[in-house]
């Protein structure tokens, strides 16, 4: 534990503790809609963190992370619907399936020297395979969608993930906090240094004895496995899955906006990004509803605008300069 | 047994013969220099030794073990460290972090690797800059960082690709002293590519001259610099005025 905290500024720890307390107390004050927004923020902070392992740490751009969300969601949901298996058991299947999918894609790409933009295209291609494939996959009801049985639950059943939005909020909070700690530990490990080296210069990394293929594979597999957890929660939270939606490329793009805006390669960036994007976008939508203006696609325009502003004025993302202001940079 | 032994190494790129049947060896504990005009194939030889390219023909042996065809990381693991002529710092990382990456090769434990790296950074005169991002370094400092990173992998043979280029004479003498000391104290074997003859003459016990991919001369420094073929192709004739 002391090793985990080493080198973290004290002020940073206080801020983290305050943020955690705030998030833990949030459901006491917020209900219904606000709680749903809170869940979404945590969801995007988590998947952003998972994606960041690949892109931010190891420098491998994935534009197909919806594949892992979808596979994870479908695996756990199908096992629950067909066999009544608890999502906690299904989760193991989800993680294994996504780790395998990540390993296959990584192997095909890295073994045959597919890198950069071409690697990104390959990740899109696999997500699209899955989208089209699942449309015709009758065991999970194909394009008509897989539905989980829903009833009015009076009690939270954590074992079967049937319960109130509040339970899901806390589950997502635990996952996000766990991902943060895990990524922090990874970044300080030997593997973390190797990932950064590969991101900065694969040739120099190789010359220093790093097996670049192996460490890129680790990054993809870990990122995919983490992302699958979000998929499981997604499935049991929304109770319906459609290949057209969950594997869609817009979902892949949506989940990478947070870390890009927050700061790629930073630990706090994905969280800040999720707060900014989801928080502000939902706030904007709500405000417009109050004003009686209803324009479809406002959220997308807003995302575009945020991205534009960040790229123009804060190319490293919002977090690095903010950290400097708060005296938290190393 | 030679530390490094090249026998009949050839490497072509799309029909252009970059290295043609090059043979030479490097004795353990020695400092050898590889010189020759631009395009003579010096860096290609380094890349063949370091595992970036497999040779088309010929063999490369390191302490008797065939290493041609190994990947760069395997060559590093065998005990060969290298620097890049066109420096490749991990720009987004600090100076010390750059060197820690190298140190982690032998020291699996991060704090131990940090200690090893700090010593090497200090030894190369980068101590004051250890916390700065590598992207903020000047070119001579970046070259020093290349050396520090390679040294951190604890090599038995160090390949230096033009690390003296662009240094002022005093800086050049400083780094020459560092290599001398490493060679003397730790018995580090060094093979260097260099155009700065001041450094070559000060360091090398043995020189290999390359021209159009072929070894045209090799031997002790004062013999080689008087060799007519070398004067003609590389160093230039001495003219009486």
What would your notes on this structure say?
The complex is a heterodimer of chains A (330) and B (241). Helices cover 74% and strands 1% of the residues of chain A. Chain A is mainly α and 330 residues long. Chain A has one domain (2-325): ABC transporter involved in vitamin B12 uptake, BtuC. The longest helix of chain A is centred in the C-terminal third of the chain and has 27 residues, at 212-238. Chain B has two domains: 1-79 and 155-241, P-loop containing nucleotide triphosphate hydrolases (Rossmann fold, 3-Layer(aba) Sandwich); 90-154, no CATH class. Chain B has helices spanning 42-49, 72-78, 95-103, 110-123, 139-152, 169-186, 197-203, 221-224, 228-235, and strands spanning 4-13, 16-26, 31-35, 57-62, 65-66, 80-82, 157-161, 189-193, 206-211, 214-219. Chain B has a six-stranded mixed β-sheet with strand order 6-7-8-3-9-10, sandwiched between helices. In chain B, α3 (95-103) packs across α4 (110-123) and α4 crosses α5 (139-152). The A-B interface holds A 188-190, 193-194, 196-197, 199-201, 203-212, 265, 330 and B 50, 52, 71-73, 76-77, 81-82, 84, 88-93, 97, 100-102, 104-105, 108, 110, 113, 131, 149-150, 152-153.
Q: Which helices and strands occur, and which strands form pairs?
A:
The complex is a heterodimer of chains A (330) and B (241).
Chain A: H1 2-5, H2 10-29, H3 32-57, H4 66-83, H5 87-111, H6 117-135, E1 146-147, H7 165-188, H8 190-200, H9 202-207, H10 212-238, E2 240-241, H11 243-246, H12 249-262, H13 269-290, H14 298-313, H15 319-325
Antiparallel strand pairs in A: 1-2
Helix pairs in contact in A: 2-7, 3-7, 3-10, 3-12, 3-13, 4-5, 4-6, 4-10, 5-10, 7-8, 7-10, 8-10, 12-13, 13-14
Chain B: E1 4-13, E2 16-26, E3 31-35, H1 42-49, E4 57-62, E5 65-66, H2 72-78, E6 80-82, H3 95-103, H4 110-123, H5 139-152, E7 157-161, H6 169-186, E8 189-193, H7 197-203, E9 206-211, E10 214-219, H8 221-224, H9 228-235
Parallel strand pairs in B: 3-8, 3-9, 6-7, 7-8
Antiparallel strand pairs in B: 1-2, 1-4, 4-5, 9-10
Helix pairs in contact in B: 3-4, 3-5, 4-5, 6-7
């Amino acid at each position: 534990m002391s090793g985990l905290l080493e080198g973290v500024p004290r002020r940073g720890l206080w801020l983290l503790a305050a943020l955690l307390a705030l998030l833990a107390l949030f459901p006491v004050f917020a209900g219904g809609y606000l709680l749903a927004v809170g869940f979404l923020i945590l969801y995007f902070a988590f998947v952003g963190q998972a994606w960041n392992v690949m892109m931010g740490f190891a420098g491998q751009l994935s534009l197909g992370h919806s594949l892992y969300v979808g596979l994870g969601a479908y695996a756990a949901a199908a096992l629950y619907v067909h066999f009544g298996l608890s999502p906690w058991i299904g989760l193991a299947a989800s993680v294994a399936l996504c780790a395998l999918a990540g390993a296959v894609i990584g192997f095909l790409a890295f073994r045959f020297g597919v890198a950069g933009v071409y690697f990104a295209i390959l990740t899109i291609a696999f997500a699209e395979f899955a989208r089209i494939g699942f449309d015709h996959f009758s065991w999970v009801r194909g394009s008509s969608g897989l539905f989980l049985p829903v009833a009015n639950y009076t009690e939270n059943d954590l074992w079967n993930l049937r319960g109130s939005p509040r339970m899901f909020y806390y589950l997502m909070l635990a996952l996000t906090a766990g991902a943060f700690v895990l990524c922090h530990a990874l970044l300080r490990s030997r593997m973390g240094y190797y990932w950064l080296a590969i991101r900065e210069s694969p040739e120099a990394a190789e010359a220093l004895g790093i097996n670049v293929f192996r460490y890129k594979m680790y990054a993809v597999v870990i990122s995919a496995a983490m992302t699958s957890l979000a998929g499981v929660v997604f499935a049991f939270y929304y109770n319906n899955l459609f290949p057209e939606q969950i594997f869609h490329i817009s979902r892949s793009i949506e989940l990478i906006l947070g870390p890009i805006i927050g700061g790629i390669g930073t630990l706090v960036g994905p969280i800040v990004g999720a707060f900014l994007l989801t928080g502000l976008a939902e706030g904007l939508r709500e405000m417009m509803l109050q004003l009686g203006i209803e324009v479809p696609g406002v959220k997308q325009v807003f995302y575009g605008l945020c991205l534009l502003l960040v790229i123009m004025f804060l190319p490293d993302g919002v977090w690095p300069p903010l950290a400097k202001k708060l005296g938290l940079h190393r | 047994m030679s530390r490094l032994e090249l026998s009949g190494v050839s490497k072509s790129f799309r029909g252009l013969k970059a290295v043609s049947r090059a043979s030479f060896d490097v004795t353990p504990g020695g400092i050898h220099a590889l010189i020759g005009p631009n395009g003579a194939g010096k860096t290609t030889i380094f890349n063949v030794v370091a595992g970036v390219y497999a040779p088309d023909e010929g063999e490369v042996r390191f302490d008797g073990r065939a290493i041609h065809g190994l990947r760069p990381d395997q060559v590093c693991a065998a005990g060969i460290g290298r620097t890049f002529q066109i420096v490749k710092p991990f720009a987004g990382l600090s100076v010390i972090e750059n060197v820690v990456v190298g140190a982690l090769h032998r020291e699996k434990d991060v704090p131990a690797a940090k200690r090893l790296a700090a010593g090497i950074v200090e030894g190369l005169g980068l101590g004051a800059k250890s916390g700065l991002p590598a992207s903020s370094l000047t070119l001579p400092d970046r070259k020093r960082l290349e050396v520090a990173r390679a040294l951190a992998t604890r090599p038995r043979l160090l390949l230096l690709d033009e690390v003296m280029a662009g240094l002022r004479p005093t800086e050049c003498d400083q780094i020459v002293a560092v290599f001398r000391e490493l060679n003397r104290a730790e018995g580090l074997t060094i093979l260097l590519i260099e155009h700065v003859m001041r450094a070559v003459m000060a360091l090398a016990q043995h020189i290999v001259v390359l021209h159009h991919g072929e070894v045209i001369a090799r031997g002790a420094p004062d013999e080689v610099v008087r060799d007519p073929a070398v004067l003609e192709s590389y160093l230039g004739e001495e003219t009486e005025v």
